[in-house]
Structure formats: structure tokens, C-alpha cells
Amino acid sequence: MEYEKELEIGVRVVQLACCLCQKIQKGSFGPNPDLVVSKLDDSPVTVADWSVQAMISWILSESFGRENVSIVAEEDTQTLSDVKSTSLLASVVTTVNESLAMAPRFGLNGPTAPLEASEVLDAISRCNSSGGPVGRHWVLDPVDGTLGFVRGGQYAVALALIENGRVVVGVLGCPNYSSKRKLVNNSSAPKSDLWQEGCVMYTKRGSGQAWMQPLVCGDGTLEWPNSASVIQVSSIDNPVMATFCEPVEKANSNHSYSAGIAYSLGLRKQPLRVYSMVKYAAIARGDAEIYMKFAKAGYKEKIWDHAAGVVIVEEAGGVVTDAGGRPLDFSKGVYLEGLDRGIVACSGVNLHEKIIGAVYASWDSSHL
Ligand SMILES: [Mg+2]
User: Which residues form the signal peptide (predicted)?
Assistant: First the structure.
């Protein structure tokens, strides 16, 4: 069965990563005075981002052989290696070792002895592949939507496998997206029984299906395949009934442009503004029908912000293209090169055609 082992390891390690993130938020690994720091480009990064990247990199290397594993991931060790970051690095090392100690519960092998700081840094910096059109590359956003993570909103752990430029496996861990409840505006962590509420969605290319598991962080062990349920996109194709989602931050997408598109199509509902790739998850699960993102001219979308979400939406029955109607190209390295204007994900072709048409009709006057 092609990609079966990759999918299984991917789901297990993303489950473990979601657990790591929840335990950081609960303070289970000790207080984190350095929870949020700024990268050189001023974007936020936390102990969780580096810890998840180190842990997943280490597990993938152990599972598939270090020499076989190429990983394209968001974080590097620049800020962490800074001499002023000693306590930050110590927090990351503790967190990575605490989470790897839980690995057997998730059906994964942990290390025989705790990792040294140098091994943790090494695991993070090994994720420096730039992908491309040939071979296999894992694509990782350790914490997608760091602002959502920090603010108690939605965030995701996103892992995908690209082979010869095509996304073939996608795993999306959504720790604050209840497996039982619909997504609503400003969705944040449910107050009670936090560890049972999140979900992990996954698929492999060509399966014609996507699945969802509840998180198993609270107790028990992760069985494979466990009681996963099949997820499907919504069958609503009338814009009047459709829900559309978009990024929370205006800096990431032009809200007034998408509002214009929504108006011209007769969409009645207010947009669902959600941090992170949980927007793709909402389309795949049928909680929303449309996801639109129109970044500023010149902004280059990174593959780790889309790969896992795109394949899950597609296998769940949806459509994802750029705003010109062409498929996203994951073969050009770290960025989605050649992306036309924006990204449109829909539950079906009917809504998708209408949106692409509305973009063509309105673009010249949009001044984006
Ligand atoms: Mg990130």
C-alpha cells in the first residue's frame, strides 16, 4: 500500500505534537517565561514552534533513516542559537524530551536517553531542505497560526509529504478544533476537557477519502487504524447558504476585496475569520464552503502553509486553486511560485467557478 507507512507515522507524530502544544499551554512542562519571542522578520515564534519541529524531525529521521529524509520547515535555529537565548533553548530541550518520553503511547519509538541540546538544535536545523520537483520532501509547519496559539484561538500542526512536486500525504492536527462541534467565529479552546476536544485530519493522494481522529492526548494509547471517521465537504452549492472563511489578520488577506466578492455572489453570512490552516480543515469537514485569501501584491505564499490542507480538501471532495483557477504548484521549492493573485478553496466546482468568475470580473478595479 503506497504511502501507508508515511501516513501512519505522520498521523502518530502529529497527534504527539498536538499533545505537546496542549501541554505547553497548560504549563505542564513548567512555566514558560519566554513563550513568545520575535524572529528577525518580527513574526512571533514560541517554544512550541521549535519543540514540535525538533520532535517531528527526530521521529521522521528515526522512522525512515536520516539519509532518506528531506524536510522543508518553517523554523531555523538562528534565534535559538543566540547566546542570549540560553533559557529559551533549555525550555525547548526540556519540552522535546518530555514529549519524546510520551512517544510509546503514540506508537512511536523515543530515544534511549534524553537528547542533548546539540542534538535538538541539529534536529531543527536538518529541516533546511528547499524541496523542489524531484524526490520526496516532507513539508512541516510546526505551529501554523502562532498568533492563534498564543491567543488561545485556532492553530494547527501541518505535515505533508511531497513526491516529485505533488502533495501525496497530508496530516493536519487542530488542537482547538473540536472533533464533535462545528467551527464558529473566534473559536477558541473549549473550557472543559480540553485534551479530548481537538482533532487530526489526514489523507493520502488518490484515496478519494479523508479521515478525522479525535486527539488522544488526555489518556489511552493511539491505535492504528483507530476509530477514525470519514470527513466530507459540504453539499451546499448555493452561495446564499454558503459560509466563507478567511484569515483573521488584514495583513494576510484583503478583507474588503473578499467582502466585495462575497457581496457580488450573494453570500449572506458574515465571514468566519480563523487563524491557520484550520480554514482548510473547516472546508474539508463541511463546516464552511469557501476559503478565500488575497494577500498583498508581492507576498509569496510558502508551501508549508498550504500543502497538508490542500490535499485533505481535495480528497474530501473539494477544489483548491489560485485565483486564476490553476492548481497550486508545490514543485518550485519553498514558495508557491507563479501563484495568480490569491487562493480559493471550495466545497465544490459550482461555487468555485462562481468565485473565480467574480475575481476576473472585479480584479481590475480592486487596486490590490
Ligand atoms: Mg508556523
Answer: none
pLDDT in tens, 239-270: 999 999 999 988 888 999 999 999 999 998 88
Strand partners, 158: 141, 172
Helices 47-64 and 4-26, axial angle in degrees (round to 10):
150
Whether residue 352 sits in one domain with residue 313 = yes
Report residue 82 CA to chain centroid gap: 27
Name the grid cell of 224: 492504528
Per-residue pLDDT reduced to its tens digit, 285-313 = 999 999 999 998 889 999 999 999 999 99
| Claim to verify: residue 245 and residue 208 sit in the same structural domain | no
Per the DSSP assignment, residues forming a β-bridge with 128 are 72
The C-alpha cell at 272 is: 468566519
pLDDT of residue 358: 93
Q: How far is the CA of 358 from the centre of ligand 1 (A)?
A: 31
Task: Give the count of domains, the chain.
Answer: 2
* 210 and 71 in a common domain: yes
C-alpha distances (whole Å) from 266 to each of 262, 280, 324 are 6, 22, 21
How far apart CA 172 and CA 215 sit, in angstroms, is 12
Q: What gap in Å lies between CA 339 and CA 320, rounded to an integer?
A: 12
Question: Domain range holding 325?
Answer: 239-365
305 is in an annotated binding site: yes
The pair phi, psi for residue 290, each rounded to 5°, is -140, 140
Q: Is 49 a catalytic residue?
A: yes
Q: What is the CATH number of the domain that holds 261?
A: 3.40.190.80
Using CA of residue 24, residue 26, residue 29, residue 31, what is the dihedral sign?
positive
How far is Cα 115 from Cα 94, in angstroms, rounded to an integer? 9
Residue ranges of the chain with per-residue pLDDT less than 50: 189-190, 192-195
Whether residue 106 contacts residue 221, with contact meaning beta carbons closer than 8 Å, is answered with yes
Q: Is 122 annotated as a binding residue?
A: no
CA of 266 to the centre of ligand 1 (A): 34
Tell whether 337 is in a known binding site: no
Instruction: Note the pLDDT of residue 41.
Output: 74
